[in-house]
């Protein structure tokens, strides 16, 4: 029995941000707005949204586009966010001192964000 290998997609580039100090739920709220949009449209949305989670996601999208133009030579006008996912990271647990010798637990959640950009000019040229 011969196994067929899945061909690599040479039209996609990604950027990965790990251990970003933000809960995965708050990051997903922003990521859902830009999934499937063009690169330039996503940057405009991220600049105008009022959430704190927009800035690290903005940096990741910008970094993925820089990877695409530098490593693969893609034009930024042809890039589309094909995949954007948020996974939960480690939770940093601390103790905050309180009155009368007590302590109060603090949980700082982190998340891992993956942004995948795809070049659509490849698909348009094959049609």
UniProtKB/TrEMBL annotation:
Belongs to the universal ribosomal protein uL22 family. Gene3D superfamilies: Ribosomal protein L22/L17 (3.90.470.10). GO terms for cellular component: chloroplast; large ribosomal subunit. Keywords: Chloroplast, Plastid, Ribonucleoprotein, Ribosomal protein, RNA-binding, rRNA-binding. GO terms for molecular function: rRNA binding; structural constituent of ribosome. It comes from Iodanthus pinnatifidus. GO terms for biological process: translation. It is found in: Plastid, Chloroplast. This is Large ribosomal subunit protein uL22c. The globular domain of the protein is located near the polypeptide exit tunnel on the outside of the subunit, while an extended beta-hairpin is found that lines the wall of the exit tunnel in the center of the 70S ribosome. Part of the 50S ribosomal subunit. Pfam families: Ribosomal_L22.
């Amino acid at each position: 029995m011969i196994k067929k290998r899945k061909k690599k997609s040479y039209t996609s580039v990604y950027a990965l941000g790990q251990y970003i100090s933000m809960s995965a739920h708050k990051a997903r709220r922003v990521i859902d707005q830009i999934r499937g949009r063009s690169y330039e449209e996503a940057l405009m949305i991220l600049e105008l949204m009022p959430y704190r989670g927009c800035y690290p996601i903005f940096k990741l999208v910008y970094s993925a586009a820089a990877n695409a133009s530098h490593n693969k030579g893609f034009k930024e006008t042809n890039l589309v966010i094909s995949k954007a996912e948020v996974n939960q990271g480690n939770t940093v647990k601390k103790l905050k001192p309180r009155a009368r010798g007590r302590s109060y637990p603090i949980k700082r959640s982190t998340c891992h964000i993956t942004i995948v950009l795809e070049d659509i000019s490849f698909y348009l040229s094959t049609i």
